[in-house]
Specification:
Distance between the termini: 53 Å
Number of helices: 10
Strand order of the largest sheet: 3-4-5-6-7-10-11-12
Shape: elongated
Structural class: alpha/beta
């Protein structure tokens, strides 16, 4: 999210290193889940050409028919809050760009809702990222009448009820709606403002509860397509967020928690959008700092209970950079901004920080949605203008999913907005001939794009028990705790275990069967927890001197458990068809042992790892407790698929 002037954004970040941030008081309890709000829905102005729900196939997002659905969107901001944090909240001058949103999407005071949505369609977009704050959810006070002057039917409504109306109308009009938890408090983001993390101004439990509430609230609205979990996770006064340390600042763990609860408790139809880390470190020369974005996913990626719902997200603005937070003046470092980079260097940065995630056949493979980028219509800096042309060229050439920031603004206030409205409702902006951004925007919107049915590809997903269980199978969860006291991992339903790390506790799952994706598991219930060698047949010692946890005949591995560093159990399930084929032992206690060109990528970074071939399944794990040896997995029994 841009902030003008940019100095305010980074001044806050540096000041936050020295000062204690002020946070909002706790919000009131959420109201009960309401019934539908179809009375507010507008008639669709453009026939929808896609059918919900959305899911993923490799690097692409697809609709329910398996056809490519490219997120070509924009951010309709306002419901996340606009107050800048100083001065009276009732004075518009103390709101971003002098625009008091009253905690609802901008423009409803000036333009009827159906007219706004008609204008959105003229842009050619198909997706609306709709920010909200946790404070908005809990607010029980109706917005003032002047906040919805052009929409009298919304008078007397709370911010959440107005958000309902907007969601219903967008869906009815054919737009995909991505709900975005942008802020904790209804205050303009994104410095040190009480909104740095999902739990900056509230508990992680309350945050996850709010997500379950919102996902359930709109579960019956067909084109509510995704949950964008949190915006621009960044450093607060004293601490950085991290990706995988297992503490209260662990964004990897928090995103996994919220995603799991949304998909299992609220709405399994939703895409789960996980943004990278926006900022860590102190923006001062000589001190470590930078924008990790999605780079941590290369060594620790998310695995959800539904393997076709994960979308990663990143933000790019010309005034920020790989190690530049965007400040001018206070908090500015001497690192280059993205707009200072050559075209080639910019493209390298985009790939390394985000778009590597789209590489096929990796444990981290997923669509990447650039859910924020943008520039102002009054921008005169040649470097910034060149950056905008370069970045839109990249998005066009790489068939990127995107959302411009912002969609709506007030004339004379926010020149970044695609569409600006004066007090009479007159529209101006990027659809006008005088907007210099129009050429780049049109190139992005009209460049060739993959369409039609997307072929199914094998899925590869990582399991990690670094700080707790990673039981990603809903069927396994239904059986209860299959190894009490141990850290447990199981592949999502439809996938099987094919790889293990020796000391890291990492595993690799896939549905690849050599000829393509496929679920080997029988439809009937049943699983076997193997803790000893009872299923090793006479004369079948495939790892002499080692303890062998071998699946019963006709079964294959989907999970494992550990107590400390020691293997505890193997989890096996019956196959839907007879399993046969010769077996081989894959040792990995002294070096890597993976097929040449193995898919999945480095799922246990820095560790020895073993992996069965794409045309094999795993039927056993071997380990040792000999003195001087590590008790982690040492070998896999791999067998040829029939």
């Amino acid at each position: 999210m841009p902030i003008a002037p940019a100095a305010l954004r980074l001044a806050g970040a540096v000041a936050g290193f020295l000062l204690v941030a002020t946070t909002s008081p706790a919000a009131s309890p959420a109201p009960g889940q309401p019934t539908g709000h179809n009375m507010w829905a507008v008639v669709a102005t453009t026939p929808a050409t896609w059918s919900p729900p959305l899911s993923t196939q490799g690097r692409y997002i697809v609709d329910s028919q398996g056809n490519r659905f490219r997120l070509k969107g924009a951010n309709w901001d306002g419901a996340q809050g606009s107050w800048t944090g100083s001065g009276s909240v009732d004075d518009p001058a103390n709101h971003h760009a002098g625009q008091d949103s009253h905690g609802i999407p901008l423009g409803l005071d000036r333009v009827p809702l159906d007219q706004l949505i008609g204008d959105f369609h003229q842009l050619g977009i198909n997706t609306i990222r709709l920010p909200f704050s946790n404070e908005m959810i809990h607010s029980t006070a109706p917005v003032p009448d002047n906040a919805v002057a052009a929409n009298p039917r919304l008078r007397g409504k709370t911010p959440l009820e107005i958000y309902d109306a907007v969601v219903e109308s967008l869906s009815a009009s054919g737009f995909a709606v991505i709900l975005n938890n942008h802020t904790n408090t209804s205050r303009w983001c994104c410095g040190v403002d009480g909104n740095e993390r999902w739990n900056s101004s509230q508990s992680a439990q309350a945050w996850a509860d709010d997500w379950v509430f919102m996902a359930r609230r709109y579960a019956g609205v067909p084109r509510v397509a995704g949950a964008d979990l949190y915006n621009e996770v960044r450093r607060d006064v004293l601490d950085d967020p991290n990706w995988g340390l297992g503490d209260s600042h662990d964004w990897y763990a928090a995103a996994r928690l919220a995603a799991d609860r949304i998909l299992t408790e609220a709405n399994p139809r939703l895409l789960i959008v996980i943004e990278g880390l926006n900022w860590t470190g102190i923006p001062a020369d000589g001190l470590p700092h930078g924008r990790p974005v999605l780079t941590p996913a290369g060594t620790l990626s998310h695995t959800l209970v539904d393997t076709h719902k994960l979308v990663y997200s990143a933000h790019f603005y010309g005034y920020t950079g790989p190690h530049h937070s965007g400040a001018t003046g206070v908090g500015e470092t001497h690192d280059p901004r993205y707009q200072d980079l050559s075209r080639d260097d910019l493209y390298t940065a985009l790939h390394d920080e985000a778009f590597f995630v789209q590489e096929p056949g990796r444990h981290y493979t997923a669509p990447v949605w650039v859910s924020e980028f943008g520039i102002g219509a009054n921008e005169s800096n040649p470097a910034a203008r060149t950056w905008f042309g370069n970045v839109t060229d990249y998005f066009a050439d790489h068939d990127t999913d995107f959302a411009f920031w912002p969609l709506v603004g007030f004339t004379g206030h926010d020149d970044w907005a695609l569409l600006q409205y004066d007090r009479t409702g007159h529209r101006s902006g990027i659809l006008d001939a005088g907007d210099w951004r129009a050429a780049a925007w049109q190139h992005l919107m009209t460049a060739p794009s993959d369409t039609g049915e997307v072929a199914a590809v094998p899925v590869w997903r990582m399991l990690a028990i670094d700080h707790g269980d990673a039981v990603e199978s809903v069927r396994v969860r239904a059986t209860g705790d299959w190894d009490p006291g141990a850290y447990k991992a199981s592949c999502p339903d439809g996938l099987r275990l094919v790889g293990l790390g020796h000391t890291s506790g990492r595993g690799l799952c896939t549905d690849g069967t050599g000829g393509g994706p496929g679920d080997l598991r029988a439809a009937v219930a049943g699983q076997t927890v193997v803790t000893d060698e009872r299923y090793v047949p006479a004369g079948g010692d495939w790892a002499s001197g080692y303890t062998k946890l071998q699946c019963p005949g006709g079964s294959f591995l989907i999970g494992y458990s550990a107590r400390g560093a020691r293997v505890s159990a193997a989890l096996c399930v019956p196959a839907r068809n007879p399993l046969a084929g010769a077996g081989r032992t894959v040792w990995f206690d002294r070096s890597d042992n993976r097929p040449s060109g193995a898919a999945g990528g480095d799922f246990a970074y820095g560790d020895y790892k073993g992996q069965c071939g794409d045309d094999e399944y795993a039927a056993g794990i071997a380990y040792t407790t000999r003195a001087g040896s590590r008790p982690g997995p040492a070998a896999l029994l791999c067998r040829r698929l029939p």
